[in-house]
Amino acid sequence: MNTFPRFVSRSEIISNISTCTKNYAYFRISNNRRRYCAVTVSLSTKSAEETLVVVGSGAAGIYGAIRAKTIAPDLNVVVIEKGKPLSKVKISGGGRCNVTNGHCVDNVILAGNYPRGNKELRGSFFNMHGPTDTMSWFSDRGVELTTENDGRVFPVSNSSSTIIDCLLSEAKSRGVVLQTGKSVTSVSMTGGGKFSIKIEKRTVDYVEYIEANYMMIATGSSEQGYKLANHLGHSIVKPVPSLFTFKIDDFQLVELSGVTFPKVRVKLKLDTVQKSIPEHTQVGPMLVTHWGFSGPVILRLSAWGARELSESVYKGSLLVDFVPDLHIEDVKSFLIQHKNKFPKQKVVNSFPSEFGLVKRFWRFILEHEDLVGDLLWASVSNNLLISIASHLKNCSFRVKGKGQFKDEFVTAGGVPLAEISLNTMESRIQPRLFFAGEVLNVDGVTGGFNFQNAWSGGYIAGTSIGSLATVSDLKEGAL
């Protein structure tokens, strides 16, 4: 018999979250005039209790809020979200939600999947809460997970709703208050060291102010989070897109749309970047689309070269090795052997099986050499064989822009990691201010790594806040 708790729907959870109330004051904006009015804000009636305001209800925000409330049950935890909670979780992985990656148990290897953060995350970050901890957290709450061959971890249900409902159910049971349709537009510090937070709800034209002892910014790549962090003294590394496809200037590629290469080696040479960057070479699967190239190897390349690609306005040359496991001399040798073995066959109809190519792509290579029609293998010169081998090992394509990777928007940039403590996720500039998730200058490649950054950062921040609130309660009790 299943002993795990029943998961209810998101709408049921949100509509039934019970909250205590406390009266605050706010300014209402109407007909271009402000009027001072009273409003009921969903906070505890016990003024002595401390409050945490989490800005953003994505993976990091909700996970962190749950953890803080778990550590400090008497802490008021309020999550403010202008849109729908966990919206990125919903669309991730094609609606399946790639929770984490289960193949990276070594921290150095795991950190190597983060173009921004690969050096800083090699320390204790994932030791405090890594992929195994994430999987255990969801499994302990009744979510069955499965790990695919490439390490990606998904719910067995193949539905992101399973992850969303689990998180919202846990938040509800812990007493986390979730307020949607509201936006934190500014924050300042009071004389007592608290955060004075301005919240707006534009649909009904009102402004409210609340005070908080702790604040966690977990707004993802939203401009809102960058502005709040900057206002509180943090610098911002300019955000640029990461994880995108390449638009290729080659009309013949359209005929190859849908062709997948299990393994290629790609190297990027940008127009305006002179320095050579080793990470601009990647190996992995590639997909041909009607606009250019996609697939894991292209997405990894776009992530590692995100800043340089932005500087080059996404213009450059992509060099593709379609037979990366073969040396060019081996390629030539296989071509010569094939010519000698099948001299009377048409070149367009046969090629060495060792190459592992599809017929459509072989024709594409031949067209680049102007080898079409009824040409027989016996008529192919050695110079042409050398040229074919060269194209297979080093085929150049002109990159003319970037595409978009489905609905998974990832950015490189945000609050520099040097400005926070990764052991606590607390700001080194403003005490009791915490960050988690993509608002920081951390981004991962595809495969569940961006969500793992969110889970780890949220967990550490929530633990730190909950511990501080618990100590504060003990001091209050002693007095």
From TrEMBL:
The keyword Lyase does not apply. Coiled coil: none annotated. Keywords: FAD, Flavoprotein. Its cofactor is FAD. InterPro entries: BaiN-like, BaiN-like_dom_sf, FAD/NAD-bd_sf, RsdA/BaiN/AoA(So)-like_dom, RsdA/BaiN/AoA(So)_Rossmann. Residues 51-463 form the RsdA/BaiN/AoA(So)-like Rossmann fold-like domain. Residues 240-410 form the RsdA/BaiN/AoA(So)-like insert domain. The keyword Acetylation does not apply. SUPFAM superfamilies: FAD/NAD(P)-binding domain (SSF51905), HI0933 insert domain-like (SSF160996). This is Uncharacterized protein.
